[in-house]
Amino acid sequence: MTVNAPPNITIQPSGQTVIVGQPATFSISAGGTAPLNYQWQRNTMNISGAISSIYTISSTALADNGAKFRCVVSNGFGAATSNEATLTVQPPPPILQTEDNTDHAIAFDSVTMLRDPFPLTNTFNFSSDNRTRVMLFAINLDLLPGEDSSAVTARAQDAQFMLHPLPVEYVGKVPGFAWLTEVVVILPGDLPAGQDVLVSVSYRAQTSNQVRFKIK
Predict the structure, then answer these.
(1) Is the dihedral of CA 176, 178, 181, 184 positive or negative?
(2) Is the pLDDT of residue 2 over 70?
(3) Residue 117: is the preceding peptide bond cis (ω within 30°)?
């Protein structure tokens, strides 16, 4: 006796989270009488040529963020539609600029424009607090319309692995260099002197590399 069965989805596709430019792959497993036919859909519309149990986007774009993918499996006895899986595409993390082949920050005292070591207190600072403000440079850090420096956070790690939040005072494009962003942070008074610190910034839940400079 031959029993013919319509398709049934045994493993549903899973949502994917990737960095822009990375691939994303969706897959399902189905049972039922062979042969089984597969048709992937994006936002309920058929994707041309996507007719296997696996569908891959070779290089994702920010425009793919939030897209929903599902697969319709059919045979001569019926069809079954999988659950939708959501694709989340995140922008690349910010990257703080360093000297070639090192983790040593390209950074300046934002008032005196001197390189490290940086003092915790700068008597030449134009602000009333006399705190040293350090200017860092980043790529992949483009504020959205309506955002300001409050959208960016920063922290320093000292030689004892203690973490120190750094107030972010300014974030903006470097004049004449649209691809480069200037980030000004304020050094807090509780940073230990006479040692290197590692600094990173975070934006849209993405954290940058750590860059090194010295405190005197």
Answers:
(1) positive
(2) no
(3) yes
- Return d(Cα 57, Cα 173) in angstroms, integer: 32
Tell me the three state secondary structure of residue 139: strand
Find where tokens 């319509």 sit: 6
List the one residue out of 185, 193, 113, 180 whose CA is nearest residue 155.
185
The candidate with the shortest Cα–Cα distance to 53, out of 10, 17, 16, is 10
Whole-prediction pTM: 0.74
Question: So what's the architecture of 8-90 in CATH?
Answer: Sandwich (2.60)
For 95-215, the fitting CATH number among 2.30.40.10, 2.40.280.10, 1.20.1560.10, 2.60.40.10 is 2.60.40.10
Q: Amino acid identity of 72?
A: V
Q: What is the pLDDT of residue 1?
A: 59
Count H helices and E strands in the chain, helices first. 0, 20
